[in-house]
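Is S-adenosylmethionine placement plausible here? Inputs below.
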Amino acid sequence: MFSERIKAIGSNVRYGDSVLDIGCDHGYASIYVKKYRDCKKVYACDISEKALESAKRNFQKYGVKIKTYVSDGFKNVPVKVDTAIISGVGTNTILKILKEASYLPERLVLGSQNDLYRLRKELYSMGYKLVDERALLEKDHYYVIFLYIKAPQKLTKTELRFGISNNEEYLRYLKLNNLKILRKKIPWKKRIKLRIENLILTVLIERK
Ligand SMILES: C[S@@+](CC[C@H](N)C(=O)[O-])C[C@H]1O[C@@H](n2cnc3c(N)ncnc32)[C@H](O)[C@@H]1O
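Reply from A.M.:
I modeled the complex. Tokens:
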């Protein structure tokens, strides 16, 4: 019933937390935390009314009571929560939602497929600590699920670039991606940067 990705998102939520699932769409993450993480107060929102209708149908189907809001990020949600889930929307949207928020929750469970370096860097400068990071392959795409909590942290440049994932498969994917770009015509500075990155990736993979 729940994909590995939804389970990974849900299992990053602390038992009993109040949760807001932003961009809930089908609402599976909300259902998961309500059912399996003992979260009594779960709220779901989406910018699209149509998406919320599909969430409401699923809430009914799985017999869970979850309050829904049509909302761009936190804007139209009148409650404050311990944890916000924002997944499946890409780094740009995640950062926009967080930067426009009137408050930021203690914990964030984020899922993005792109621009992970920028995501890590921005969250780092917003004062969030990267606690866990997991890459999952679903339908030929890699999804990375992050758990952040409000706390100070020092990350090295390598950790910001490649993350703290212990997932060897993901590092191999990054390496392959770089090799694909290296086959194209690209400026020499970028070529050198990618070659250095691939050397670092090789070392990281060999250490595993
Ligand atoms: C691909 S779905 C992801 C659904 C679910 N979160 C998941 O991870 O499977 C993206 C959803 O985010 C919603 N969305 C996009 N931008 C949003 C925003 N600024 N605020 C709230 N929802 C947004 C879209 O309408 C869509 O339903």
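Short version: The mean pLDDT is 93.
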